[in-house]
Amino acid sequence: MKALVKKYPEPGLWLDDVPEPEIGINDVLIKIEKTAICGTDVHIYNWDEWAQKTIKTPMTVGHEFVGRIVDMGSNVHDLKKGDLVSGEGHIVCGRCRNCLAGRRHLCKDTKGVGVNRTGAYAEYLAIPVTNVWLCDPNIPTDVLSCFDPLGNATHTALEYDLVGEDVLITGAGPIGIMSVAIAKKAGARYVVVTDVNPHRLEMAKAMGADHTVDVRSEKIEDAIKALAMTEGFDVGFEMSGNPTAFNDMIHNMAHGGKIALLGILPETSIDWDAVVFNGLTIKGIYGRRMYETWYKMTTLIQSGLDITPIITHRYHYTEFEKGFEAMKSGKSGKVVLDWTS
Ligand code: NAD
Ligand code: ZN
């Protein structure tokens, strides 16, 4: 079958012929219809330091997908051939304390599809049945292919009660932009978004941001004044992975404010005095809750959440280079690759 493979330990991806995956008794075989490109895939493509120490070549990459079940192992009874499915890219051990308690996003031994084991940029993908999410076929497949990052946005945005709260989002990447719409739908009063990229701030506005701040020329304090807020932000979502953005956030939170930290920060010097004296809560957010987040994002979409404006580019999988170029340009939202023909 065709697959996009990190074939050699150097920048790039290779469209290659690889064997179809074999299924075990608890696995499901999925014929891939659409995949989306994640920032992680761009790291792997670029072969940066993180990718070099994480990826063992050759590796079929990709973990954002939707497809249809074509085969299943003998232990799988509750799904059928033809079912439209996406899936959780974090394969968990199922036996550790957190897994047994139903907190599978906190598994002590998570393995990543398309990172530590063969991935979804391929005609077929095999995953355990416990990782399959049965999709509502009324939701467009483009949108379903983005459920993994939409799940990151949903997990982060629903971590704290947002009703009537003022929310600061640092970083208007695809996940930051999706979280704008979720925060508004969940009842936030004001949602303010920062970035250094005007294209992305425009997208954030289109998704419902009340105010955007280009931190190259503006300050978050200006937004606080413009919206006549008095005490700073009640809730923060850090979604840039940028240390300056994180410190900007810490300094603009209301006393007792709560931060959900999704962005992966390099070694960062944090103003701990501001955290302590202002009584801030900072909570790390990893992946998606299995499967409460998947349930919530499905029902959010069923009740009107529209993330289609975020899907800015669509290509056939053979044109994957164009997709990665779009991702690297800084002018894209989500980029979706079509595997149906
Ligand atoms: P992205 O890289 O597309 O978006 C980050 C955005 O932050 C960009 O638009 C960038 O211009 C902006 N930015 C850069 N410097 C800034 C600054 N000083 N102030 C404000 N914004 C700034 O990333 P994404 O795919 O949307 O993901 C968001 C973050 O979440 C990344 O750090 C990613 O690594 C992380 N992530 C974490 C998890 C998890 O499970 N914890 C999962 C997925 C992604
Ligand atoms: Zn576990």
Automatic annotation (TrEMBL):
Q: Which residues bind Zn(2+) 2?
A: 93, 96, 99, 107
Keyword Transmembrane annotated: no
Q: Provide the binding site for Zn(2+) 1.
A: 38, 63-64
EC number(s)?
1.1.1.103
The record's listing under Pfam families reads: ADH_N, ADH_zinc_N
GO term, biological process aspect, one: L-threonine catabolic process to glycine
Cofactor(s) listed in the protein's UniProt record: Zn(2+)
UniProt KW keywords: Cytoplasm, Metal-binding, NAD, Oxidoreductase, Zinc
**Alphabetical list of Gene3D superfamilies matching this protein:** Medium-chain alcohol dehydrogenases, catalytic domain, NAD(P)-binding Rossmann-like Domain
Residue ranges occupied by any Enoyl reductase (ER) domain in the UniProt entry:
12-337
- Compartments it resides in: Cytoplasm
- Binding positions (NAD(+)): 175, 195, 200, 262-264, 285-286
Q: Which residues form the active site?
A: 40, 43
Q: Which GO terms describe its molecular function?
A: L-threonine 3-dehydrogenase activity; zinc ion binding
Quaternary data: Homotetramer.
Return the protein name.
L-threonine 3-dehydrogenase
